[in-house]
Amino acid sequence: MEPLVSIIMPSYNSARTIAQSIDSVLAQSYSNWELLITDDKSNDDTVSLINQYVAKDARIHLFQNTENLGAGGSRNRSIEEANGKYIAFLDSDDLWLANKLAVQINYMLQHQITLSYAWYQKFSDEGDGGCVESKLTVTYQQLLYGNVIGCLTAVYDAEILGKRYMPLIRKRQDMGLWLDILKDIDMAHAIPKVLAKYRVDSGMTQNKLMVLKWQWLFYRQVLNFGIIKSTVCFFVYAIKGFVKYFT
Questions:
Q1: Among 64, 71, 68, which residue's Cα sits nearest to residue 214?
Q2: What values do phi and psi take at 190, rounded to 5?
Q3: What is the pTM of this model?
Q4: Does an H or E element contain 96, and which?
Q5: Which tens digit of pLDDT belongs to each residue from 86-127?
Q6: Do 197 and 94 contact (CB within 8 A), yes or no?
Q7: How far, in Å, CA of 170 to CA of 187, rounded?
Q8: 30, 60, 165, 217 - which has most CB atoms within 10 Å?
Q9: Nearest residue to 150 (alpha-carbon basis) of 215, 82, 204, 198
């Protein structure tokens, strides 16, 4: 029997996009999943839309925060409620290809992988963009200098690792979780196939200076690195980002 996969989805004012995201889960060829959506006090029609799906499919569950916690806190709420061997992540503006779970879970079972990720394609309402082809493996030390694990593609084995949660910060929560897991395993492994689609026009993108600010705070406040180590990591991160942006 297929092992249960718990899909973690945070939502906040996602009425424009969440139906497509949920539909991409319903379209999976892999059927043994539960979709755990935690809404972060939306003030649009998001909750109403989710409830329509909850009424139609018993695998979909809605939880609602009493205060706005951000994506990390919302994901953690869903992780608390998860029952699956595997924990997977999909945001309420992104999409999975129909074979995503089937390919990835089969790969993890065959190769006894505890943390995996995959390639993905950028898209917007105007059409598809370029593909992000991540390196095939990444260690803790390598991930410190740049997050190559797209959250919309990541899956970890909670049966082996135990439930792992995201740090309660507004940005870079996913990177914090991957690093926490990579402390306990040799490396994470990528599947060199496009299995998901990352939306770039949802209003969630930030300017580059804000990205750099959050990355610095991540090194200092989440990983608790000293000034020297934070500076080295930040410098390498910034250079890699500069090269990626202009190549």
A1: 71
A2: -100, 150
A3: 0.91
A4: strand 95-96
A5: 999 999 999 999 999 999 999 999 999 999 999 999 998 888
A6: yes
A7: 26
A8: 60
A9: 198
Distance CA 19, CA 125 (A): 14
**Residue 18, CA distances (Å) to 2, 22, 52 in order:** 26, 6, 12
To which H or E segment does residue 33 belong? strand 33-39
181: Cβ–Cβ under 8 A, 6 or more apart, which residues? 114, 115, 156, 161, 164, 188
What b/e readout covers 27-56, taking b as 16+ CB neighbours within 10 angstroms? ebebebbbbbbbbbebeeebbebbeebbee
Nearest to 122 by CA among 201, 25, 190: 201
3-state SS class at 39:
strand
CB half-sphere exposure, 159, CA atoms < 13 A: 12
Q: How many residues does the chain have?
A: 247
What pLDDT score does 204 carry? 46
In one letter, which amino acid is 57? Answer: D
CATH code of the domain made up of 5-202: 3.90.550.10
> What are the extents of the domains in the chain?
5-202, 206-247
Residue 77 C-alpha from the chain's centroid: 14
Give per-residue pLDDT as tens, 199-215: 987 654 445 667 788 88
Dihedral, 104, 105, 109, 110 alpha carbons, nearest 10: -40
> What pLDDT does residue 160 have?
98
Whether residue 94 contacts residue 14, with contact meaning beta carbons closer than 8 Å, is answered with no
Helices (H), the chain: 18-26, 46-56, 70-81, 100-111, 140-143, 158-161, 173-182, 208-217, 227-245
